[in-house]
């Protein structure tokens, strides 16, 4: 099972960016998929997740109303649409997967850098 994140880059504050996470090696009907991020010198934090089968979502308060998590089931791809980006959003973003019945995310992508300039 592999998760391949892409779409990071340098963007000005207030701008948009869309991250993608291509999943391969299995289907994720029994999984939750999520985005996490880790800024320099900080611990990794939860950003958003989605229940793959039904599409229900949850967000960290810091991104609610600005970020949207979605998935394309036929393409086995997870997305994170980020709007109104702020310098505090600068981080390495990771996609991850876990079984719905599990407590922890056990499948991780390699991360993609997002840098927001002020």
Please tag this protein with its features.
118 residues, mainly beta, 7-stranded mixed β-sheet, 4-stranded antiparallel β-sheet, 0% helix, 54% strand
Can you describe what's shown?
The structure is a single chain. Strands 2, 4, 5, 6, 9, 10 and 11 form a seven-stranded mixed beta sheet that branches. The protein has a four-stranded antiparallel beta sheet with strand order 1-3-8-7, with no helix packed on it. It has strands at 2-6, 9-12, 17-24, 31-38, 45-51, 57-59, 67-72, 77-82, 91-99, 107-108, 112-117. The relative contact order is 0.32. With 118 residues, the protein is mainly β. It starts with a strand and ends with a strand. A hairpin with a 4-residue loop joins β7 and β8 (77-82). The protein contains no helices and eleven strands. 0% of the residues lie in helices and 54% in strands.
Provide the structure class.
mainly beta
Main pleated-sheet profile:
7 strands, mixed
The whole-number mean of residue pLDDT values reads 95
Instruction: Figure out the total of helices.
Output: 0
N- to C-terminal separation?
A: 37 Å
| CA-atom Rg in angstroms | 13 Å
Instruction: Write the H/E string, N to C.
Output: EEEEEEEEEEE
Helix content: under 10%
Task: List how many beta strands DSSP finds.
Answer: 11
Approximately how much beta-strand content do the residues carry?
over 45%
**Overall body shape:** globular
Q: Low-confidence stretches at least 5 residues in length (pLDDT < 50)?
A: none
């Amino acid at each position: 099972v592999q998760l391949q994140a892409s779409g990071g880059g340098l963007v000005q504050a207030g701008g948009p960016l869309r991250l993608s996470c291509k999943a391969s090696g299995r289907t994720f009907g029994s999984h939750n998929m999520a985005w996490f991020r880790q800024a320099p010198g900080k611990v990794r934090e939860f950003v958003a997740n989605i229940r793959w089968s039904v599409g229900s979502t949850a967000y960290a308060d810091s991104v609610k109303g600005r970020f949207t998590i979605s998935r394309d089931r036929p393409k086995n791809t997870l997305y994170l649409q980020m709007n109104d980006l702020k310098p505090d959003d600068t981080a390495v973003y990771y996609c991850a997967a876990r079984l719905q019945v599990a407590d922890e995310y056990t499948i991780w992508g390699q991360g993609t850098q997002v840098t927001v300039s002020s």
